[in-house]
Amino acid sequence: xxxxxxxxxxxxCLLPAGxxxxxxxxxxxLAAAEDTTYPYTTQELYAERNGNRIYGVLxxxxxxxxxxxxxxxxxxxxxxxxxxxxxxxxxxxxxxxVYCFDFCGGSYSSQSDGSPLxxxxxxxxxxxxxxxxxxxxxxFIDADNLFLMGTSQGGAVSAVTAADHPNEIRGLILxxxxxxxxxxxxxxxxxxxxxxxxxxxxxxxxxxxxxxxxLGYDIYADIAGYDSDVLLLHGDADTIVPLSxxxxxxxxxxxxxxxxxxxxGHGFSGxxxxxxxxxxxxxxxxxxx
Length: 289
Description:
Layout: E1 4-7, E2 40-49, E3 52-61, E4 68-74, H1 85-92, E5 97-101, H2 121-136, E6 141-151, H3 153-164, E7 171-175, H4 181-188, E8 198-201, E9 204-207, H5 208-212, H6 219-223, E10 230-235, H7 243-252, E11 256-261, H8 270-286
Parallel strand pairs: 1-11, 4-5, 4-6, 6-7, 7-10, 10-11
Antiparallel strand pairs: 2-3, 3-5, 8-9
Helix pairs in contact: 2-3
């Protein structure tokens, strides 16, 4: 895929019937027409990592085929699986299975085990790897069509995880990914000895390891190990993770495209969320095996 940076054209989401423009590539399983909508069920499912239970909800479309494309959604710093619900609902109606989960210690509201004081980039990567294994074992999931999707810190975690498992991950969708994590850590602390046992960061107290694992870490060099197509979505009014982070990631990934949402901040809602869903659906349709 040729790398490109583009401002969104509304033509990408002309929706006469509430859906996205049809792609010329493969459609979701058994989706005979662009306006096909599937009913879906929700089910609580747990994965496990080192004795910690990881809580999540599976959105499963009905009558969409025996083997379903799967999207695993990872929330950002201080969030929960609920951040992914609007995306999961929209994608399930199009025939995709979506699993949204809480990182262990990912927030004060997490329904997974663990404390925010123990959470770090690496513990969240281990959580995501455990979720991937659980989803792969579901008999109705097409293991050749497994995608990772993440917002903010969950986007960074998804990218690092995909780079370590490139043959298992068909595609990668990153919404305002927090690739500045290491940069922020190195701005705050110059050595591990300076890092306190607990530190109130943004809107949550985290532990020593959160920053220690990021000191001297080059996340852009790490994510370059994922060579399949990547979709980056970022607002140009984001004051938490600047657009420049995704622009730099665009150059780091061997194959990526960046869609810039004019006026959007850190987190999409309203028309920005609808536009993002359109772009995600188009990406998924064009990258099915």
